[in-house]
Amino acid sequence: MFSSFGKFAGLYAMLAAVSGFLYSVSFVVLKNPLLFSIFLTLGGIFTTAAIVGIYQRVREADEGFAFWGLLLALVGAGGSAIHGAYDLANAVKAPAANAASLADLPSQIDPRGFLTFGVAGLGTLVLAWLILRNGAFTRNVGYVGLLSGLLLVVIYLGRLLILDPNNPLLLGPAALEGFIVNPVFLAWVGWLMWKAPVGVTARPVANTPTYSVPPGKARRR
Questions:
Q1: What was the pLDDT predicted at 203?
Q2: What is the sign of the dihedral through the CA atoms of 58, 115, 179 and 33?
Q3: Scanning 19, 64, 128, 190, which has its CA 20 to 30 A from the CA of 183?
């Protein structure tokens, strides 16, 4: 069905963008635990394919940094999916004891969004920096990625230090990232990978002179 993993990664990046936007709507506007848990889980899964697709295109810029960014981003996406699945399990069937206080307790696997926002933000920053160095995508995509990674780190720090999700210092960056920056970044790289599903963008080869052998002067063996 897919000509290459790049095309598959492009599709999943666009699905991750949609899931991230719907997560923000469900969390900020609808305040529906069941819905935002589902979209957080799906978004984390979809993002893993997108991350590998980006890695394939930027690894020539710096193999070590690319692999580090891949690991950080994959751990962040995995933590996001696990956090969503944890919330989903509680939303589907909340434990009888102290069920009302569950939302106030940090997730044991992802305390205050350490993986979902903090680690994922660091991974996004590394990959976006490599996008700017490598030229595998347009430079504007790299700038949007840098902004997305920075906002993710800020959101984690806000959730760790401020706690109140309605505080403007936390709500502002979260709304900007969830409703605009992250969906735009993922949808943009997804569309570019879908249009040109190449594992690694080929570097231009310098023009080299070609020589032709006149007829009758070919070497004899």
A1: 44
A2: positive
A3: 64
